[in-house]
Amino acid sequence: MVFGIRKRIHDHMVERRICRSRLVTKYGRCNIEFGNVKYGNHFAFLVDFWTTFVEFRWRFVLFFFIASFTLSWFIFGLIWFWIARNNGDLTWQNPSKSHIPCVDNVYNLITAFLFSLETQTSIGYGGRAITPFCSGAVTLIIIQYLIGNIINCFMCGVILAKISIPKKRAKTITFSEMAVICPKKDFLCLMIRVANLRKTLMIGSQIYGKLLRTTIKPDGETIIMDQLNIEFMVDAGKDNLFFVCPLTLYHVIDNTSPFFEMAVDTLHKQEFELVVFLDGTAESTNSACQVRTSFIPQEIMWGYNFLPIISRNKEGKYRVNFSNFSKVVPVATAHCAYCFHNMKGHHLHSIDGIDNGEFEVIDNLEQPNMTKM
After folding, report:
1. Where in this chain does the record put each Inward rectifier potassium channel C-terminal domain (predicted)?
2. How much helix, strand and coil, in percent to the nearest 5, is found in the chain?
């Protein structure tokens, strides 16, 4: 029991260390912080206040929503109270019976606050109303009405913008937890799987990748987070994907690929991060969005292929089995890319592949009814 607890703690610490070392998390968040930013640059966030408000967390947006209205009601309530005091309308000032107040039934701070709330929200219960004998009160009610409308428009706009933000659409697009390397149509390919969980399409979808790693130049200069382009494609090309069902994207490992120099026994010793991007426009909202994920060497399985997940039933309808979305099977694969391209039929990696506890490996023989498309 003690050994099991220690193993769980060790695995948890390893997972946390891996998450901290990522630039992009599996869910697309960028793991980066900015230090020593000049104080004057912080005012740029105030100048671009709309984007700042939209990017606030919901808890802060709701706080500003409540605070902006409540504070404006209270401030204008104080001004109404000051006007009533200057006009002698308050109860403790003992106004005469013939006295004409600036606002009917505003005789203390609470009634001034209630009149401010009723004015700005256009409630108009009828118990409190302005009279035409105080020019300052007439001016104030116009100012409060305009400011109240500005606050209404701004806060409603922020909330609507946050609700319709494209990031939420990206939540319904998912990538496989692992990438695999195996032969495909006489090429050695790195493959990942992506699925759109909604039936509405992503228009003009494009897929591409960036390989991030530390590079040391011949002159000794060290480039941290050096970026290399990684091209992904499907059988029909790489642009304008028909994203109606899960797709298997592949990158051909040839002599121009940074994966060409890697092998099955050296892959997991490498230090790099493969960031994959999917850009598209949501069909229902016509808003552009980007989905991101990343893969580290420990999440790339050499000598495995994804299980087929698309089949067709007796009625002729296509069916997607998402239980096999991230499941893989071992396949015969060359030990390295050089062996694959220069020694055809030789140096094939064992059919047993590399054991990985992250995935449930299923033998192909257990899937006799699957139709690969």
Report:
1. 173-342
2. 35, 25, 40
> Considering Cα of 44, then 50, then 51, then 57, what sign does the dihedral take?
positive
Average pLDDT in the chain: 81
Count of all residues that appear for the chain in the document: 373
Question: What is residue 251's three-state secondary structure?
Answer: strand
* CA 345 to centroid of chain Cα atoms: 44
* Strands of 133-201, DSSP E: 173-175, 179-184, 187-196
Token pair belonging to 211 = 């390989």
Which residues, at least 6 apart from 65, have a Cβ–Cβ distance to it below 8 Å?
A: 155, 158, 159
Strands 187-196 and 222-231: unpaired
Gap between the terminal Cα atoms of the chain? 46
Residue of 49, 69, 94, 74 whose CA lies nearest to 152: 69
pLDDT tens digits, residue range 33-71? 777 666 656 677 777 888 888 888 899 999 999 999 999
Please state, in angstroms and rounded to a whole number, the distance separating the CA atoms of residues 342 and 322.
Answer: 37
- Give the model's pLDDT for residue 27: 80
* pLDDT for position 6: 67
Separation of alpha carbons 290 and 293, rounded Å: 10
Q: Is residue 264 predicted with pLDDT exceeding 70?
A: yes
120, 72 contact by CB (below 8 A) = yes
Of 252, 209, 250, 202, the residue nearest 228 (C-alpha): 209
> Nearest Cα to 112, choosing from 75, 165, 71, 149?
75
Contacts of 308 (CB under 8 A, 6+ apart): 324, 367, 370, 371, 372, 373
